[in-house]
Amino acid sequence: MAIIRLTERPYFRNPWAEFERIRQGLDQLSQNFAEGDVRYGRATVFPPINMYEAKEQVIIKAEIPGVSTENLDISLEGETLSLQGTRAMHDDEKIAFHRREIERGNFSRAVPLPIKVDPDNISAKLKNGILTITIGKAAEVKPRQIAVSTE
Amino acid sequence: MSEHELKVQHKQEIQHSGETTKPEKHFVPAVDIFENNEQITVVAEMPGVPVEGINVNLEDDLLTIQGVKQPDELPEARVLLQEYETGHYLRRFTLAESIDQENIKASLNDGLLTVILPKSAPARPQKIEIKVD
After folding, report:
1. Nearest-CA distance A86 → chain B (Å)
2. Which of A2, A39, B12, B131 has its CA at a distance of 20 to 30 angstroms from the CA of residue B58?
């Protein structure tokens, strides 16, 4: 028979301690996930985008294969960037489809920008189905070099 | 023009047996395949792949389409939002019809690869005239 001395027993065993331990574990998990401040999201609105912040610009990339420049409309309204466009249908009617995985139709997405931007400094290019929009940051959020002088 | 609203199609990674040494991903490109009397057309989504990276190969009746994307060129930048991944594309099809291998054409436009496979003469439907005496 094992003898447990009275002094070795915990004075008060908290029945919620186990839950507390689980909660701490979950907190840690979500913290690791949010590390680096990257939002790994699954897009729900077409097109999926990647957004990057460079020193003086915000870069937005979107994969839109099959959309030509004539069918694409980009506008900036305040801090919201709108992408609209159409992926054209196959016009030939005399064809028999084996597979039809590429969807055709319209899309429209509004992207809120997390950083203040300069609306006069924006460029967009479309290459190999990837749209790259580069927007300059507003002057007040650009990093400013501060010279240190010695006396 | 259709009123159809486009939905997001998430990229699917290739299920392969071996592991690659490079940490690069291969995705299955979405395709449209259709045929008419003269040819079979395969259209595949390959955003980010330059013309040099396209590889179309027909061996016996196995058609392989491959797109090798360029490495991402990003200046020193912080990622704010990432909704899609980039990678290479690879997909294989077994063709049921015999194809005129000499006249396969492929073109790349706005990230869409179009491969035109002309049917060889015996595979085309031939109309047989029935004479009535």
Report:
1. 9
2. B12
> Long-range CB contacts (< 8 A, 24+ apart) of A16-21?
none
CB contact under 8 A, B36 and A103: no
SS3 B14: coil
Query: What is the DSSP track for A24-71?
Result: HHHHHHHHHHHGGG-EE----SSSPEEEEE-SSEEEEEEE-TT--GGG
β B78-82/B88-94 pair status: unpaired
User: B84, B86, B91: which to substitute to probe chain A, counting the most A Cβ within 10 Å?
Assistant: B84
CB A49 within 8 A of CB A61: yes
* Distant-in-sequence, close-in-space partners of A17: CB < 8 Å, separation ≥ 6: none
pTM of the model: 0.72
Closest listed residue to residue B34, CA positions, set A151, A83, A94? A94
ipTM: 0.76
Integer Rg of chain A from CA = 27
pLDDT of residue A36: 45
Amino acid at B25: K
